[in-house]
Amino acid sequence: MSSQNTSNTSSSGTGTGSGSSNTGSGGYTTTSSGTNEQGNHYCSRDYGAGAPNSNSYHYSNTDGSYYYSNPSGSTYYNDGKGGARYSSGK
């Protein structure tokens, strides 16, 4: 895993998605998810006040890259070409 502070620029744009809350089996609520005009997927989850990063999210892009902002505060970025960065968030 690897670290990166990155904005979700390659996943930006308007598209279809859900703003409804769905309770997941892992102790989270899905606050939004969907696919934008470019075909990139995103999902945002609320893990509650007890998590260091309660509003976690991930996205995956059509070029094979993906990014996770985890409830532990760690982040992981994979560029889809063999490169990856991880940060423990501490």
Can you characterise this structure?
This protein is mainly beta and 90 residues long. Helix content is 0%, strand content 42%. Residues 1-21 have low confidence and may be disordered. It contains no helices and 8 strands. It has strands at residues 15-18, 22-23, 29-36, 41-46, 55-60, 66-69, 75-78, 84-87. The radius of gyration is 13 Å and the shape is flat. Strands 1, 2, 3, 4, 5, 6, 7 and 8 form an 8-stranded antiparallel beta sheet that branches. It starts with 14 loop residues before the first strand and ends with a strand. Residues 1-36 have a biased composition (Low complexity).
Summary?
It is built from no helices and eight strands. A hairpin with a 4-residue loop joins strand 3 and strand 4.
